[in-house]
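Revision sheet: structure tokens.
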Amino acid sequence: MNFDTFTEFIQKSFRVSLGAAASAVDAIQDPQASASKFSNIGTDFDRLADELEVKGAQTEKEARDFVDNVSSSFGGQWPNPFAPSPASNTTVNTVAKPVVDTGIQAELKALTEQLSAIRQEIDQLKAQGS
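Predicted:
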């Protein structure tokens, strides 16, 4: 493998990776066909890389065609989901109000009183022990 430029190396690496991913999907969908295809390659890694690069280039072309088709259906421009809509000019003023559960407040008050009583007992026991 002789690469004239670094960009060629990166592009080939990308296509081999993309081809490997596409081949993995094909292997899941049709394991027997993939097994026979890759058993013919054997351990010839240059041939395997070439096969995966071809598969990756094909997948890349299909993806580009798909994106072009989707893009053309929007008239060449993608919609901006963050653009304000005409109805978004209204302002809503709200104030958050805490939700008060009287049962929880009563329980909290009772626990606070118990804690205060325990502290007093501890102080009394400390005073007796000294």
